[in-house]
Specification:
663 residues, Alkaline Phosphatase, subunit A, two-stranded antiparallel ribbon
Amino acid sequence: MSERLANRVLLIGWDAADWTLLRPMLQAGEMPALAGLIERGASGNLATIHPVLSPMLWTSIATGKRPYKHGIHGFVEPAPDGSGVRPITSTSRTTKAIWNILSQSSLESNVVGWLASHPAEPIRGTVATDYFLHPESLCGGPDRIPADACWPERLRPVLENLRVNPRDIDAEALLPFVPLAAKQDVSGDARIGQLASLLARAASAHAVACATMSQESWDFTAVYYDMIDQIGHHFMQYHPPAMPGVSAADAAMFGDVVRGCYRFHDMMLQAMLELAGDDATVIIVSDHGFHSGDMRTGTDGFQNPTAWHREQGMVCASGPGIRPGETLRGASLLDVTPTILTLLGLPVGKDMDGRPWLEALEPAGEPDYVDSWDDVPGESGIRPPSPDAVLDSSPEMLQVLADLGYLDAPSGEIKDQVNETRVQLKTNLALAMMDGGEVDGAMALWAELAEDQSQSAAMRRSARAELADCLGRQGRHEQCQSLLMQLRDEAPDDPVLLFKLAQLKLRVGEPDAAIALINALTGPVAESVPTLVLKAQCLMTLRSLDAAAELFDQVLKLDADNAMAYAGLSRVALLNDDARGAADLALRAIELDTQLPAAHHTLGHALLGLGRRAEARLAWQASLRIDPEQPELRRSLARLGASDAAEHNGRQDITGKASAPSC
């Protein structure tokens, strides 16, 4: 497919936008611009990847690659000379972003506010980096735009004129978010100041995006807004029903901030749609969702911030090249760049981890491929690593980054901060490799962290626990158990160790022992979603199917898009000889998370029960690609192949009954 399906593409990033909040607002008519896009286009869930850290995720969106391929592993990084810590930079990215690929393909882009885009890259088009959106905190003063915050340099006066200063946000501008502010004196409330700052950042990004769209020639525009995510961390505890511990007065004052934020984004969307015109293809994505109900974790959105994030983000696409009325299933944030390349008639990199959404594209066809865009010659604007890029490791800079939620509050000497940053980046990389199935690489990193004497005993123990998890994933169960038991001797009440031991016991076919360990858990972890899922899997293995189904249903009441719960219910249906129900539930699980081997495994059995042998084979092959350590499934697949061959040759069917999938 070399045909260009879209004249131009507008990509809008709404960090943490969530269908659980959007759907009731859409039904109430509060999001008319988004409603129109959904009606005219395709939409669905967008699965995130791990760890759920924004610079890593938005760089994956912009490259189609997992973090261990693109090089961005956190919010901050050590300076190359080891003299301090600086915010993550575009020079740390080790692969071409979509705008680099388009630039060397003679297409023009506008990039506004994208995370890890500073210093600006000299592409065909314009760039206003993420530093532009934090002038007071990252640029040394309220009226200063740093060097390299824009490309080309002629854009600087535009940025200076369009930037909105929080001091210019008056009380009237805040009334859609805090209506009661008109009746009370809130001038001394720090939360009002924070709201004004977030509103100014979003308005600044929007102003620059609109200006470049209207004044520049473009084939692709990408604009990133962080306001929904930041509003969630600052104000979600007040969202109805307010969390326990929130006063009635605060709930009344700030209870409408989250909804006001979404309405504001819809207003900005409407303006951008009018500028883009009907010939533009528009894609809106979020990198993850945000808990707004019973899964909220307290009244401090910055205490364990990733715990507030839901696995499912949102996506909506509309315009030329998009089939109206299509529901996107099994979509991942890794798919965004491959889809945009296909829309613009360019080949997809075989080294990209995502796929184009062919089911939502028209006319239908297969995309073209290139081994890697990194090997394609041409001026792309990508910057080489630079030891001098935006280095500021002062205590003031580190405190600013902590205030923004980018890292823990700085303490100690610079060398300690540098070392802590290196450890955190290595930890994030190991987690990303585990998430992508690169277990060998993750093991090497966990082994290094486990031996790092600069870290506390608890941190080294945590690394050893992850190392044990890797051993379990490789099927080295005895080594996994030996290491976990050593760790349990050191910390007998550590809930993480108890949980991992329970996982192992289930994996080796000891569900009773697993349940005993689960029952020993206390506190919030005992009622957490992962614990409920694990206990339900144990009950299912013991053939206590009604009890297992009840627990899976309980999980879905807490998290309506929990893929593991749907996968579990699918297997319950299969064990109850309901092949049709099992297939439907397995497909729902796969729609939410394409990387669940058990869901593909169960789907294969269900399809086989429905007589759809060829599709069953594909499902089992998909399961094995994700998790090769399934010897019984390999035997089942071999028997199915032998049976098909025998049937083809007119011989008697020699299949045996395939085993039920394990957890």
